[in-house]
User: What shape does this take?
Amino acid sequence: MTEHRTAQQRPAQTRPAQPWIDQGWVRIAAPAALGAAALVAWEVAVTALDIQPYLLPAPTAILAQLQAALGGIVAAALATGRNAALGLLLGAVAAVVVAALASRVRWLDQVVAPLVAAIAVVPIVALAPVLQTMYGATSEMPRIIVVAIASFVPVFITTLRGLRQVRPVHRDLMRAYGATGWQATRVVTLPGAVPFVFAGVTIASSVAVISAVVAEYFGGLQNGLGSRIASAAAQSGYSRAWAYVVAAIVLGLVFYGVTLVVERIASRWARVPVT
Amino acid sequence: MSAVEVSGVTKVFEVRSGRGAATVRALDDVSLTVAEGEFVALIGPSGCGKSTLMRLIADLDEPSSGDVRVFGMPARRARLERAYGIAFQQSGLLPWRTVRANVELPLQLHGAPAADRRARADELIELVGLTEFADRHPDQLSGGMQQRVAIARALAEHPRLLLMDEPFGALDEMTRERLQGELLRIRAETGAAVVFVTHSIPEAVFLADRVVVMSPRPGRITDTVAVERAPIAAGPADDAVRETDAFFRSVTAVREALHGREGAAPRGAEAR
Assistant: This one.
């Protein structure tokens, strides 16, 4: 079988000498070094220029707060993370279902398109207090809904784009087989759109964490990062507020990292080259 | 009963360009009969409507006027009763499915039980010589192998008619010739009629019993060349067939039909 050619045998896989900038350890070490240098510069600047804590606390002060309140910070991050995860899941599932319907039913597409545009410009800040009043102060529901609405839009847009990328040859094949519309959607269109769905989820992941944090600024339960940041700042606990901000950044990175990995897995499954 | 019966078919496309809506006569009063088990090649320059004609037989498009019958049935019913198998220039394999799952696709869509599907797919994969690649994905195969999978998929439901639209058009010459030989062997084993669209004269002559020559603007059948078969003993020795005088005579006959006979105006130049 002379035609035999597998992915493992491609010559490009043998990795010739790479420039130093592309080597694995440099790609991790270089940003880490830059970050460390920035932190040192920050620390030196705060001490040397005698900057007041309410303007900018020193990294060491923030680190001390992180250590002191670690248990509470982790609990708050978990509460916010749970809202973000549930809202992201809810929004993404709704987005995929509505996009699948819109790609199949023409009039529905035309009805939904302006509504999605409207949802896309809904300011979370405007919505959160309204939902807070609707559900009362002891419910996580308003926060989850805020996250779901914010996550819906990017997932809907990328999914619909993926669903519309059916190749003509596949359309012909489905017609030749006499496949019903839903069969074609299930067998060709949806699997082909899977990488697009997860590309949307990756975009939505950062939005989800930001929305979950911001939604907490408007009262309700005092269990999450957003409410802790607000109350620490109100009580002049600037270093503590910053410690929670650091936790929010870490939470956002975790969400982004996890969804990025899932997106890679989805692309590999669908055999789409990762770009 | 003939496999394909096309009578007086015209296909007009609306082309919206700029502000005006022009019409293009892709096919003009075309009639063609393909007997059961017959291998017919459609050949002609770009725009002669050869692909359109095949798409009408497959009921992928509908004729503006005229009648298309497949095994005596209207084209639409023939499609829904899966009277034909089909392959295109692009293999159209689903990249997330293995070779086996791709071959099983039509059977799966038509509700065949999983065990039957698998047995039939394995049989077909063996027929096209890809048994050891059954669990691979299309991106791990060469273009020629992908096209063989597409042919196996076209054969999945024992069609008595195969429709092929330049299935080897994107392959290199060596792979192309090998697959032509394989197609003849498969066709001999299945006894299916074949309508094969191509723009390669040697390919048409090598494969077909009859070469139908078409010309563009409007798309018409201008000539039909019955291919001479050299009496070669036992088994198709592909290269030997390609070197016989009969093969060259048929190639010349098709070329003259395409470009106009000596003395006639050289339509070939215009046809490009």
User: Anything to note?
Assistant: The longest strand of chain B covers residues 20-34. The longest helix of chain B spans residues 173-190.
